[in-house]
Amino acid sequence: MNVPALVVVLLAAAAGVADAGERQLQIAGLSVTTWSSDAAPGPQPVIVFSHGLHGCGTQSRFLMEAFASAGYLVFAPNHRDAGCGGRGSRGRSGGASVTAPLGKPAQWTSATYRDRADDIARLVGGLRGDDRYRERVDWARLALAGHSLGGYTVLGLAGAWPDWKLAGVKAVLALSPYSQPFQSQNTLAGVSVPVMYQGGTLDVGITPWLRKAQGTYDQTPPPKYFVEFKAAGHLAWTNLTATAHESIVKYSLAFMNHYVKGQAPEAVLTQARADVSALRYASELGFSGPGKASGRNGTPPRTLGRRGR
User: Fold this and answer.
1) Nearest in space to 223 (alpha carbons), one of 180, 265, 277
2) Dist. CA 229–CA 100, nearest whole Å
3) CA 23, CA 265: separation in Å to the nearest integer?
4) Is the pLDDT of residue 33 over 70?
5) CB atoms within 10 A of CB 218
6) What is the DSSP string of 167-228?
């Protein structure tokens, strides 16, 4: 989560080779990177990606390209705190962002980094009226993904901050998410869509909070998944490293394809690959992991339907 490291991410991302129909656009007053495949037939499902603190919309290009190649329309706005050119919402009306120390999650409220949630809502609203995408977007298949503070953003939009909740979201992919504020405020029970959490054995600042007893995963209602990758640090989900990228793509696509596209579940959703140190799930596919499942009102996970469908 430190700023110098993420600035390096920006440089690495900027040096990468654009692919999968990557474009830089202005949408609803935001600087947005988009990825798409012209070969995808008919209206396409949408994934909106929220970058990390002082990160950039292009920081996780490898994963965004994979989504686009699989037939998704992908949009990644630069938030006000972005460390790259354009700086998203900086200069727009609404005043400065409310922040709080990362080390003091109990001080965070729904006002903290609210501008990020507003960016996503503004982008979705802008796309609905954008002639370039009006006929290409399937609004019945909308998902959110986010890394680090972007993970905090998309969890808030999924209901962890009730006043942020974005209607129509089918699934959320939270990549090494800063979820501690929701744990402190006991609001993760408000998440109302399927969630996949991803972490790493070297992601010491985030992943322990995801996997610990009564941590983020335990507090989240099913359907839910947690995948931990061996030797993956906090920046494994960016283009700065190549650690576990193949498996990150594999699990991310399997999750999105099942809960957003409605495809049959792939075996990988319930099976650990060689570079996965832990895989937990509580969904209509069953239950795996230490401790008891956190089903609503004690309902066994195998009988639970899919939220957000």
Assistant:
1) 265
2) 29
3) 31
4) yes
5) 22
6) TTEEEEEEES---HHHHHHT-GGG--S-EEEEEETT-TTTHHHHHSTTSHHHHSPSSEEEEE
The model's pTM: 0.88
The number of C-alpha atoms within 13 Å of 42 and in the hemisphere containing its C-beta is 4
Q: Are 67 and 73 in contact (CB under 8 A)?
A: no
Tens of pLDDT, residues 238-269: 999 999 999 999 999 999 999 999 999 999 99
**Of 265, 237, 216, which Cα lies nearest the Cα of 49?**
237
CATH of the domain at 264: 3.40.50.1820
- Token pair belonging to 84: 């790259």
129 within a domain of the structure (yes/no): yes
- Residue-number span of the structural domain to which 17 is assigned: 3-303
Would residue 30 count as lying in a domain? yes
> pLDDT grade, residue 228 (50/70/90)?
very high
Whether the predicted pLDDT of 301 surpasses 60: no
* Structure tokens that stand for 251 in this block: 């699990």
Question: Six-digit token pair at 51?
Answer: 């970058």
Task: Dig out the tokens for 4 from the structure.
Answer: 């110098």
Q: Find, among 64, 66, 46, the residue nearest to 55 by Cα.
A: 64
> Is there a domain that residue 27 lies in?
yes
d(CA 2, CA 64): 23
For residue 75, what are its two tokens? 């949009």
Dig out the tokens for 127 from the structure: 């796309």
Number of domains in the chain: 1
Q: Is residue 183 within 8 Å of 210, Cβ to Cβ? A: no
Counting Cβ atoms within 10 Å, is residue 241 exposed (0-12), middle (13-18) or buried (19+)? Answer: middle
Which token pair is 261? 């596209």
- Cβ neighbors of 104 (< 8 A, separation 6 or more) are none
Residue type, 155: L
Q: Percentages helix, strand, coil for the chain, rounded to the nearest 5?
A: 30, 20, 45
In a domain, 164, yes or no: yes
Q: What are phi and psi of 307, to 5 degrees?
A: -70, 150
